[in-house]
Amino acid sequence: MILKDFESCKKEGIVIEDERDIDRAKNLLEKAMLRKEFWSKSYNKKYDFLIVEGYYEVIKELLTALVNLKGFKSSNHECLVAFFNETFEKYAYEAEIIDTLRRVRNAIDYRGVYSDENYLKNNKLEFEHTKK
């Protein structure tokens, strides 16, 4: 799978330079931790698709905080993943997991698809590892 290129995101104006805002980054990190706490509670299996969304939202908040700390602002989640992939090259595998999760979350949110009943079970450890 080929991830979007971060430089292309900047050239297209999807990612713009922005003032580093430590307070904003801290708030995003706090929100990510609150989301993680909320979604780590026990739940009924029928809510698996919401848990998948929740994992994505936690990771997206963390990526947004990272982008902010580097002095950028992105209006596109794919470009957040591209930033992560290019900034932390040794975590290319995790970038692919995040991008796959992004696509699954988009299918849930925008196309009314439910995640496969085994998707969460099969990937939960990957998501937990990636959030760290």
Structure description:
The protein has a single domain, classed as Four Helix Bundle (Hemerythrin (Met), subunit A). It is 68% helix and 5% strand. It contains six helices and two strands. A two-stranded antiparallel sheet has the order 1-2. Helix 2 runs antiparallel to helix 3, helix 3 crosses helix 5 and helix 3 runs parallel beside helix 6.
Question: Any key phrases for this structure?
Answer:
globular; single chain; 6 helices; two-stranded antiparallel sheet; mainly alpha; 132 residues; Four Helix Bundle (Hemerythrin (Met), subunit A)
CATH class descriptor = Mainly Alpha
Q: Reading side by side through the largest sheet, how are the strands ordered?
A: 1-2
Q: Architecture in CATH?
A: Up-down Bundle
CATH topology name: Four Helix Bundle (Hemerythrin (Met), subunit A)
Low-confidence stretches: none
State the share of residues found in helices, binned by percent. 55-70%
> Over all CA atoms, what is the radius of gyration?
15 Å
- Overall tally of domains: 1
Number of strand segments: 2
- Quote the beta fraction: under 5%
Secondary structure class reads mainly alpha
Mean model confidence by pLDDT: 86
Query: Sheet bearing the most strands, described?
Result: 2 strands, antiparallel
Mass-distribution shape: globular
Could you give the topology of this structure?
Layout lengths: L5 H6 L3 E3 L4 H18 L8 H22 L2 E3 L2 H11 L4 H20 L7 H13 L1
Antiparallel strand pairs: 1-2
Helix pairs in contact: 2-3, 3-4, 3-5, 3-6, 4-5
